Amino acid sequence: MRAPRGDNQVTFDQVDVGGNTTLCTSPTGPPPPSGFKLIPPPTYYEINTTATYTGNIHICIANSGVKTNSKLFHRKDPGDWEDVTCPTQGCPSCPGPDPGNEICGCVSSLSTFAIFQPVEGGGPTVGGVAEPTNKIALLLPWMALATLILLTIGIVVFRRARE
């Protein structure tokens, strides 16, 4: 049974011993993986449980910023972000999202989750901000420094030659 649209959901394949499941949100968290940025409004979801369970956990999160290219990522402790957006391999019962601003995923453990979307142009990000994909833009500061050094050396050599 699904909760009404607009609610966040955590559904376990099987609960062996009952417990409490919590979902806390924060506007700050680890930086997105390369090539992705947080959707607005920026929200990280920390999901934990005291229950003992077996099988997969299905997560559905409602967020007004969800777009068709949005992805639900799970941060494994410690480690990298993993795209867990439904449908996923190894999770045949992964629910699809209800129409609207919802995204679903399938995991085997709980921790931090976030909704990211690809950076336009596919470039990498640093702290959620797109890096320039133009390599010359990255080289310009170094080229300016090299030019300044060469000019300084040239002036010193020219002065010594005149003496």
Please provide a written account of the structure.
Strand 6 (71-75) and strand 7 form a beta hairpin. The longest helix is centred in the last third of the chain and has 28 residues, at 135-162. The protein folds into 2 domains: 9-129, no CATH class; 132-163. The protein has one helix spanning 135-162, and strands at 9-17, 21-26, 36-38, 44-49, 52-62, 71-75, 81-83, 102-107, 112-118, 125-126, 129-130. The chain is built from 1 helix and 11 strands; from the N terminus they run E-E-E-E-E-E-E-E-E-E-E-H. It has 163 residues and is an alpha+beta fold.
Write the layout of secondary structure elements.
Layout: E1 9-17, E2 21-26, E3 36-38, E4 44-49, E5 52-62, E6 71-75, E7 81-83, E8 102-107, E9 112-118, E10 125-126, E11 129-130, H1 135-162
Antiparallel strand pairs: 1-5, 2-4, 3-9, 4-9, 5-8, 6-7, 6-9, 10-11
| Number of extended strands | 11
Radius of gyration: 24 Å
Percent of residues in helices comes to 10-25%
- Judged by helices, strands and strand pairing, the structural class is alpha+beta
Order of helices and strands: EEEEEEEEEEEH
Principal-axes geometry comes out as globular
Largest beta-sheet details? 6 strands, antiparallel
Summarize the structure.
By secondary structure, the protein is an alpha+beta fold. The chain has 1 helix and 11 strands.
Give the key terms.
163 residues, alpha+beta, six-stranded antiparallel sheet, three-stranded antiparallel sheet, 1 helix, disordered N terminus
